[in-house]
Structure formats: C-alpha cells, structure tokens
Amino acid sequence: MTQKKIMFLGGSAQQLVAIRAAKDLGYYTVVCDYLPDNPGQYVADKFYGVSTTDVESVYEIAKTEQVNGILAYASDPAAFPAAIVAERLGLPTNPAKSVEVLGLKYPWRKFLHDNGFACPKFFSFSPQTPIGEVKENVKDFTFPVVVKPTDSSGSKGVTRLDVWDGFEKAIRWADEYSRNKVLLVEEFIQRGYPHVIGGDIFVWDGKIVLYGEMDCLRDTLRSPLIPIGKKKPSGLNKKQEEIVHRELQRIITALGICFGEMNIEILLDKDDNVHFLELGPRAGGNMIPLQLSDAFGVDLVKANVQAAIGVKPDFVDKPVASLPGCYMHYVLHGYETGAFESIEIDEHIKNFIYRKVVYKKPGDKVEVFDGAGKALGIVFFHFDTVDEMEYFCENHNSLIKVNLQ
Hints:
The chain is of the alpha+beta class. Helices cover 30% and strands 29% of the residues. An 8-stranded antiparallel beta sheet has the order 13-12-9-10-11-14-18-16. A 4-stranded parallel beta sheet has the order 3-2-1-4, sandwiched between helices. Strand 9 (197-204) and strand 10 form a beta hairpin. Helix 4 (96-103) packs across helix 5 (105-114).
C-alpha cells in the first residue's frame, strides 16, 4: 500500500506534536515554514523553507509531493492558504470561503449579523483613516469599545477604551499586528457570565462530536485581554451549556464546516445570548488539544491528522465523556524583559502538575507578555476538586514565578 503523505503548514514548537502524531500513524510528513529555526524541519521527512501564507509556493510543493492532505495545525495565518490549496487539489478541506470569513474579523462580524447571531455594533477602517471620520462613524457606540486588527489572533494588538483618550495609540498598536491593514472598532460586550468561554470543539461530517468548552483564566490586573489558561469543567449551568452547544452547532451548519478541530471564544451576556468573539478554523493554541485529549481520554492531535487526509478519527463513533477531576493549562509568562533563568513553582501545587513544557532555556530573551506569542511555556494541571483549581487561579501570580537572570 502506498504511504500516505501529509503537508504541515508550520513547524513551530506547538506544531511538533502533530508532526510526530503523523509519523506515528505511518504517514510521510512534509513541512513548510519560512523561519530558519523552526524545530519541525528536524522531525519531518521533507522540509521546505517557504512561507505558509505563500499560496502559490505551497500549491506547487503540494502538487509535486502529491500529498493526501494539508494541515495548518494551531495556526491562524496558515488556515486559509491550506484551504485554498486543498480545494485546488481536491483534498479534504472545509470551504475556503468559510475559512476566510473566520480569519478576518470584519467579514466575520458581518456574517454573524447577517445570519442572526448576537453581534455588537462594529466599524472597520484603515489605519490611515482620519480619526475624526472614524469617530463620526462610531458616535452612537456605547463605551467601552475595543480596537483590534481584523486578521490577528491571541489578542495581539487589542485595546479596550473607556473614553476616546488613547484612541490614536490604540490604532497604532492594532496596526502593528495587522497584515491586511484593516482595523476594527466595536462595542465591548458586557458579560453576564463572568468568564470568557474558550476551548475547542471537534466536528465530523458536519456534526460536533466533542464539545470542549472551558472557562478562560485572565490576569485582570496586567493582561485582561490575553488568556493565560483554560479550566475544565467550566462553571456553566446546564441551561447555559445547552444554549452554547445549540449555537455552536448552528454556526457550524451555517458555515458548512465539514470536519476538524475548531477553536472557540464566546461570551454570554446578561440574557445568556451567545456572542462569538472568535471561531478559529484550526486547533487551539497553547496546546489545548493536549489538555482536552487528557480530559476526554481521546487523542485529538491524532484526530486532526487523520481528518486532514479524510480518515475518520477513532473516537467519532464512541461515546465521549469527561474523565474525573479538573483539567487545566496555565501559560507561563512574564511582565519584564530580561534573560530567562528558571520557573519557580510553589510546593503546594507541584503534585497537581502532570506535564510541563518550557520553551525557553537559561539565557534566552524574555519579552513583556502582551500577546500569546510571548508565552514562555505551558503547565498542565489535574486537580481533584474545583476548589483546588480555583485556589490556584486566585493565587497564580504567587504560586508560579518566572525568574530572570
């Protein structure tokens, strides 16, 4: 039997698990990544030093290699190119038009509005648009508002404003993280449920077969817009859970999503209306698939690889239920620049840690944590009770410390 080939768009540290899973499944692996220091090139069977967003180069490589599937694992920028190339070659993919909508915040907001989903007021504009013109278009907006790029993820370039002071600075910050130079200002959604709901879902044959919604942990004092952890189980009551699941399936159907892992970011307002902040057309970052695999006793990384080449994942036809206890991941981060020395973990929580991944080695540069890309690593916890998990969440800054040289 001919060995199946799969192409990965991206070979970063977070994408290594998928490349290794493909090799464990017996597939031939091809990796594309323009960064010269990407670790995936040393694991893959074949490596090409091209950008994952260079559609024509990726297309030519995929055609030459005669791959059976393309996977942009945990990568927003590569998801749309992967869908375009897969459609051209007749490979398994979700509709490229839907993937494009999910990757750009303005079309996304318009899609939500046009399809009857809850949606805040919004206005898109160029960084060069005169401030007066933008303010005129949003004069009926209610504060707070959020300024953001339309094509970034991980809360990069996002600013919340309670007054117009600082608007120009917010635009410059959003522009730094914008590739398409289209920015968005929208009303801030006032939450009824206290947490942002994050996590991943898994779709097969147009149906959600795994709901992995979790509460997001955020550092309210220093980085309120950037997730620093996900915790499961969430605090949703049964009714709220049913509403979230119903709206997730409704939007998957509306978009024509066929298969794969999708990253979610949702708010519930005071009336329990579901507001979709993000629906990423790929597995979540910060190793969310590993956490959910542990929590459900399945292998989501392997499932992503199988789905990308059209193979039904093993768990799809089996009942999927959460395992006992509380599963959580925590993003290691710092708020000062310097050289990395070590991670200091309090003795009271060490026994709850079952996996730790540190991206830095002593002497490596540490930057101020202002986006998901500045993470220093991930720590995985399994608590016996919700109280134990909440104790950590309330005291994380004192229980885990980043030491600089």
